[in-house]
Write a structure and sequence with these properties.
2 helices, elongated, XapX domain-containing protein
Amino acid sequence: MQEIILAIIAGLIVGFVFALIKLPIPAPPALPGIMGIVGIYLGYKLYEMVWPMIMK
């Protein structure tokens, strides 16, 4: 849980700094883009779970 809170705080700081110096955010600006990132993460985790079962 602490990692999640620290990641949110880091994201808030980075977002604030990017807005302060008038740069575009370094993340997808729309929900579909964010869901794509979530999909990549879930696919990676699925691979980590399934691949060891296949290689037995």
